[in-house]
Specification:
With 497 residues, this protein is of the alpha+beta class. The protein has one domain (4-468): Cytochrome P450 (Cytochrome p450, Orthogonal Bundle). It has 15 helices and 13 strands. It has helices at residues 35-44, 75-84, 94-104, 113-126, 132-152, 161-177, 183-200, 206-209, 222-246, 252-262, 270-301, 303-317, 331-343, 375-378, 420-435; strands at 11-15, 20-25, 58-64, 67-73, 157-160, 350-353, 358-360, 363-365, 370-373, 438-441, 450-452, 456-458, 463-468. The protein has a four-stranded mixed β-sheet with strand order 3-4-9-6, with helices on both faces. Helix 6 packs across helix 7 and helix 13 (331-343) crosses helix 15. It is globular, with a radius of gyration of 22 Å. It binds protoporphyrin IX containing FE. Residues 92, 108-109, 120, 123, 127, 279-280, 283-284, 287-288, 291, 341, 346-347, 350, 409-411, 415, 417-419, 422-423, 427 line the site of protoporphyrin IX containing FE. Protoporphyrin IX containing FE (HEM) binds next to helix 4, helix 11 and helix 15. Residues 473-497 are annotated as: Disordered.
Length: 497
């Protein structure tokens, strides 16, 4: 007899001339009450375990070996957890901590308590939105270099856009954080090793369900050790180069080093510096690479949106390359990225472990439980988004914004992504620069499988055809929609002057 959780995940995708329902896992329909098969399925892919009823506004719970798992899919309650009662929910889940500690040590993404508080202030300051204009020339230059490289590739060659976007964003973050080039060999090395790391780590941590509040450390298999060693070798070399004075004095790393010199009580020794640098490097490139990859997929499947993007770039920029100053007028480009982050949030699960007992909705929650806020579900909840599985960038245009706490690709509250302005600016700018010159075309019917391990990526990469565009005259373009307000609750608009 075949066991249900071993069955391949069924993928739904509907494409017509005007409507796109992009690829997503079909609703889970296994027998109710059997949670072990679900856990085993979640080990392979966390997106394929949700039933139709999970995509509703509600708070629910399951127990697995006595462990309480609380799923929170209601904006008001999400605000309670991430903002109002944040101290109780500051701690990341053991699954997340254990899956990333080998790579990031006590880096910000997984630390908590005094270490997190002290370093959060430092890191969020150096990637703060006020610094984005200073780093935007790096973004523009690196994207243009990629465009020049792509120009050398013969028209209609098949490329895998996922590693291409990973190389682009790794180079951008390296130049911003360390003030130095990474180069093709190292960007490929980091990107390939992180892909391998994601495939190898177990992000369910059965030890936690068997009673260990801290979960069990990951088994460091030779393959996992090799993947980590390859990433650490690259990161250590750029940190050491930097400390030896070979990096730029305007880089993020330099800001960290100077802060430490002024405030020795911060205790940022070489290991802590390496961990924070690795954290910014990994958190800062992998998420933006995934966003851009999904955006290319969506444009390839929705030519009517792709046309609007092309026309807008032509109207706003003519033949010159888009720059930071153009972003406030690139409404379609921004809306495509916003909608991409709704449909494919690169961090599709925000998992926490509560310190003390609490009551969430009608549920009494024991200390040490697993609290799951799942942007993948929230962003596809029908009461919050009309036709939630469809790609409709227009829902982010003309001043329209989702209801508070219903759209959280960057999380919210004190642990909100400190790099959100950097990441958004980078994604919109790279898309505009590359889409001005190239199209990415997917064969009709090519299967794309969204898979969530640590981040949400297309499981088999995204091979497609790179097509060189011939420019159209700037006048031959649609009118741009009126300016829209962007309201990120934690900070102001990154695009306004
Ligand atoms: C589109 C791009 C990005 C997305 C969607 C994204 C998303 C997120 C999310 C959801 C979290 C919170 C995770 C949780 O609470 O469990 C997070 C944290 C973080 N992100 Fe981003 N991120 C992006 C880009 C960046 C960039 C460009 C940087 C750095 C330059 C960055 C640095 C960080 C750091 C350091 C944290 C940990 C913060 C903490 O725990 O206090 N991210 N990101």
């Amino acid at each position: 007899m075949r066991v249900r959780f071993r069955q391949p995940v069924e993928i739904v995708e509907h494409v017509s001339d005007t409507v796109l329902e992009p690829a997503h896992a079909a609703y889970y329909s296994g027998p109710p009450g059997k949670f072990l098969p679900l856990l085993l399925r979640a080990r392979r892919d966390f997106l394929s375990i949700w039933r139709v009823g999970d995509y509703r506004e509600k708070v629910s719970q399951v127990r697995l070996f006595g462990r309480q798992i609380v799923l929170v899919n209601a904006p008001e309650v999400i605000r309670d957890i991430l903002v109002k009662r944040r101290d109780n929910y500051e701690r990341k889940s053991p699954q997340m901590r254990r899956a990333l500690e080998y790579l990031l040590g006590d880096g910000l993404f997984i630390s908590d308590g005094p270490t997190w508080r002290q370093r959060r202030a430092l890191v969020s300051d150096i990637v703060h939105k006020d610094r984005v204009p200073a780093f935007s020339p790096i973004i523009e230059r690196t994207a243009l270099e990629m465009a020049r490289r792509w120009k050398q590739i013969p028209d209609r060659t098949t490329i895998d856009i996922l590693p291409e976007m990973a190389a682009l964003t790794a180079e951008i973050i390296s130049r911003s954080v360390f003030g130095q080039e990474l180069g093709d060999a190292d960007t490929a090395e980091v990107s390939a090793s992180f892909t391998q790391y994601q495939a190898l780590v177990d992000s369910t941590n059965p030890g936690y369900f068997l009673g260990l509040d801290e979960g069990l450390p990951m088994v460091r298999t030779p393959a996992l050790r090799r993947a980590v060693r390859r990433m650490h070798t690259v990161i250590d070399r750029i940190v050491e180069d930097h400390l030896a004075g070979r990096g730029s004095h305007h880089s993020m790393m330099e800001l960290l080093v100077r802060r430490q010199a002024r405030n020795p009580e911060l205790g940022l020794n070489a290991v802590a510096l390496r961990n924070e640098a690795a954290t910014i490097f990994m958190a800062g490139h992998e998420t933006t690479a995934a966003t851009l990859t999904w955006a290319w997929y969506l444009l390839a499947r929705a030519p009517w949106v792709e046309r609007a993007v092309h026309d807008e770039i032509a109207a706003v920029c003519g033949d010159r390359a888009p720059t930071l100053d153009d972003l406030p007028r690139l409404h379609w480009c921004q809306a495509v990225i916003d909608e991409t982050l709704r449909l494919y949030p690169p961090v599709p699960i925000l998992a926490r472990q509560n310190a003390e007992a609490d009551r969430i909705g009608d549920i009494d929650v024991r200390p040490g439980s697993l609290i799951l806020i799942v942007p993948w579900l929230l962003h596809r909840t029908e009461s919050l988004f009309e036709a939630p599985h469809e790609f409709r960038p227009e829902r982010f245009m003309d001043g329209r914004r989702p209801a508070p706490y219903s759209y959280i690709p960057f999380a919210s509250g004190p642990r909100v992504c400190p790099g959100q302005h950097f990441g958004l600016t980078e994604a919109v700018l790279c898309l505009a620069i590359l889409a001005q010159r190239f199209r990415f075309v997917l064969p009709p019917g090519q299967k794309v499988v969204p898979q969530c391990r640590l981040t949400l990526r297309p499981r088999d990469g995204l091979p497609g055809m790179l097509v060189h565009r011939r420019r159209r005259p700037a006048g031959d373009a649609v009118t741009c929609p009126p300016a829209r307000e962007r309201e990120h609750e934690s900070a102001g608009c990154p695009y306004s002057a």
